[in-house]
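FORM 7B: Structural annotation worksheet

SECTION A. Query
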Amino acid sequence: MKEININIDGESHLIITKDGKTALGVKGNTTPEADSKEQKVEVPNILIVTRKNADVLFVLKGGEGDLFKIVTAQELYDKFKYQWFEPLADDYRVLIYVNKAEDVKDAYKHFTWDDIVNFSLVDRPSISYYNKLEGDWKHNQNGGADYLLTMIDGIPYWTDAIGQIPFAFDTYREHKNIPATVETGITWGTGKGSDVILGNKDESNTYDNFFVLRGAIFASKKFSYSIEQTGKTYPPVIVREMAHSIDSKELGKVISTLEYERYAIWKK
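SECTION B. Predicted structure
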């Protein structure tokens, strides 16, 4: 049996996992057998997220309209589509607990932000970021390797969220500005060439667009450009790219209200 004690709104709660099932321990009061008065039991509005074997991965605080639930990570992704890493994006829920036990570490592919930057800095053809090609980080074996969840600096993320960052780096280096990078992300949001042809854009306020923006903002600090005359007929000028030292942990920062108002063109 595994037990986890967590504090929720000042109250201590016990999560118990035993025989492939997870349950919330509820404190009650001992009363005389003849006492027929109903006892009020407070059940916290939380979502306990587990592996398929019922081991607890993390806990989210429920939002308005939520009720107490125990769900697998796959169900959370497929059915609820909740996320806990971009407060201004849709379907946000507050992360209140992450299980750091050794026996759940293999539920995640583990990285540092340096790892994400290093993968993103590799110069690749833009087409390589298409689904399941070499630049598709969530599929690449040196990237997300088709894991559902990624762990970076102690915070879990949906792997497909992190996968937007290398694409954003490459797109920024091509267009050299943030709005064009975000617009390209919206255009290719579904990852399907047929949707691009039909004009089916992803203009949702979901985390995918936020992580394209994260990558674009970081790239705008990482790279600067200058134009030099060549003295030749062709090409008359060349564009030089200069890379600057930027703390990779900047990628771990959520999109601010100011950045959202300035660049979230999917909402305009």
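SECTION C. Observations
The helical segments are 73-80, 113-121, 159-162, 164-175, 178-187, 193-198, 207-222, 257-263. The CA atoms of residues 57 and 102 lie 11 Å apart.

SECTION D. Sign-off
Analyst initials: ____
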